[in-house]
Design brief:
The chain is of the alpha+beta class. Helices cover 54% and strands 13% of the residues. Helix 2 (23-30) crosses helix 3 (39-55) and helix 5 (95-107) packs across helix 7.
Length: 195
């Protein structure tokens, strides 16, 4: 299969799917009885397309999310999309939601009780909101009594925060971690005093 045909098919697949697709699945879709398309060839094609879309300042981009690729809108045309679609549905991440999301992002996979132990308060509402916003998802169950759910971040989280994998999240230094612990302990003491 020639490169132009491969690019055309890949573009159609990604546009139609509307979500990320793994290169090996694309390779299987492109393969025929007469010709097997290699995953490495698909990845090379996807990377070339992504580079060209950006160089040509196209309205669409190819975004790599972990080991998958997705077609998305160029950030430069967002203001024009707003005019067409009115105001897109936006969610507000409160301080509580951001704290809970941060714990999940850095500790994943993590149970609700582990999150509550770190935060010192019930986090059921926050976890449910993050699930509703599709920023976190159930990624399994802990092999322990009660089989509690394990939570992790989603591809929507990666897109929202502009990273291609959780490895790209900023690393906290030990001094910052200690400061955060002290702040949390102080807040917990203040709550105890009010009660």
């Amino acid at each position: 299969m020639d490169v132009k045909s491969m690019e055309s098919i890949i573009e159609g697949i990604l546009f139609t799917m509307g979500e990320s697709v793994e290169p090996n699945k694309i390779a299987k879709a492109l393969s025929t009885d007469e010709e097997e398309v290699k995953t490495d060839d698909v990845i090379r094609c996807l990377d070339d397309m992504a580079k060209r879309f950006e160089e040509e300042n196209r309205g669409i981009r190819l975004m790599k999310l972990d080991n998958s690729y997705q077609m998305c809108t160029s950030p430069e045309i967002y203001e024009y999309l707003i005019k067409i679609a009115k105001q897109p549905k936006k969610y507000t991440l409160t301080e509580v939601l951001m704290e809970t999301l941060s714990i999940i992002a850095y500790k994943q996979p993590v149970t609700k009780s582990e999150i509550e132990k770190i935060r010192g308060v019930d986090c059921g509402h926050a976890v449910n909101k993050l699930l509703e916003y599709n920023l976190v998802e159930e990624v399994g169950r802990l092999d322990a009594p009660g089989r509690p759910m394990l939570f992790g971040t989603t591809e929507a989280f990666l897109r929202s925060f502009g990273v291609s994998s959780i490895e790209e999240l900023p690393q906290l230094n030990p001094v910052q971690i200690e400061e955060f612990k002290q702040e949390a302990e102080e807040e917990a003491r203040q709550v105890e005093v009010k009660v």
